[in-house]
Write a structure and sequence with these properties.
globular, 334 residues, 72% helix, mainly alpha
Length: 334
């Protein structure tokens, strides 16, 4: 995303601060502890990397944080009102990439496999279907990871630099949002593969349970009971994983940790701030479920809306800053 940035550690609460070099102010406010942090000009010329002198403290601090949920939602609404066009167009672009590379090929392959058993043999040969299925299966997780990372990084960008971004060209913002480091995509791919493996294992357990039930009751009843059991179990696992791992998604997308470290930090953050993280993920779960019911159009609309509160909560818990000059300007105007 934006390259004119410097990351360092808040000297008061060990939160990670990300400072915009384009700002004329030399003072920022830590978004975690609200302390003023001064920066000289020389510190703004350092590389845009995290100061890892205390990486554990920067992600899992003992500093007490009690961010109000209503304040987060109000701020998310403000950001949505100011940046809805960029969010919508970026979501359309990212989902269009996913549809072209994954959605449309899956529909074509589904039709091809269904026509393969007919007398005319269908329009696609067996070799074409096999190779197409292999390529689509290989791209499914990385492309899905890319789409997720794009929206998360854009939400973080808006949350950190909302006022600065309003002066930038909308097209350049969208192009910058679609540029994601390859290493981050690979880390997110690993996380999604871990989740997919867990889902596959759960489905396998449900299949075994259904087979066992078929010996104790009639086959139709066993299928119904097994389906309900697996469905309820998967819904519970989805919510549990979203609660434990949504900070992990932000740690990875933010480039702050590798897969293993981000998973540890994310789960620890969710456990430490249970009330806030459960509330935020519940809102996300409801919006994402509603969007899934409306298929592609619903996901395009609801995903960026649902991601903004998570981005604000993530920065509140781990450290985010806003430009001191914005606060001074608003106070002078009032």
């Amino acid at each position: 995303m934006t390259t004119a940035r410097v990351r360092t550690i808040c000297p008061h609460c060990k939160a990670v601060l990300e400072i915009d070099r384009r700002s004329s102010s030399s003072v920022a406010i830590c978004g975690a502890c609200d302390a003023d942090v001064e920066f000289d000009r020389s510190s703004r010329n350092t590389p845009a990397t995290i100061n890892h002198s205390s990486p554990g403290d920067s992600a899992l601090r003992s500093f007490p944080i009690v961010p109000a949920l209503d304040g987060i939602l109000v701020k998310a609404i403000v950001f949505l009102r100011e940046h809805w066009l960029v969010l919508l167009l970026t979501s359309v672009a990212a989902n269009l990439i996913w549809f072209v590379l994954i959605g449309w090929p899956i529909n074509m392959l589904r039709e091809g496999w269904s026509q393969l058993g007919r007398e005319d043999g269908g329009s696609l040969s067996l070799g074409t279907l096999l190779s197409g299925s292999a390529i689509t299966g290989f791209l499914l997780v990385p492309v899905s990871a890319y789409t997720l990372v794009v929206l998360v990084r854009l939400s973080l960008e808006i949350t950190r630099y909302g006022a600065t971004l309003q002066t930038e060209n909308k097209l350049s913002q969208i192009v910058n949002a679609l540029r994601v480091p390859f290493s981050i995509i690979m880390r997110m791919t690993g996380l999604l593969l871990m989740v997919a493996t867990l889902f596959a294992f759960t489905s396998f357990i449900g299949l075994i349970a259904t087979v066992c039930l078929s010996f104790a009751m009639d086959q139709q009843t066993a299928v119904w009971v097994g389906t309900l059991f697996v469905g309820a179990l998967l819904v519970g696992i989805i919510f549990l994983l979203q609660w434990l791992l949504w900070p992990t998604v932000f740690f990875i997308s933010d480039g702050r940790a590798d897969l293993i470290t981000a998973t540890q930090w994310g789960a620890g953050l969710s456990m430490r701030h249970r009330k806030l993280t459960v509330s935020l993920v519940t809102i996300y779960f409801v919006l994402a479920t509603a969007g899934s019911m409306l298929f592609y159009v619903g996901q395009i609309l609801t995903t960026p809306i649902a991601t903004l509160p998570l981005a604000i909560g993530y920065l509140r818990m781990t450290g985010g800053e806003y430009d001191r000059s914005e606060t001074l300007t608003s106070s002078e105007d009032s």
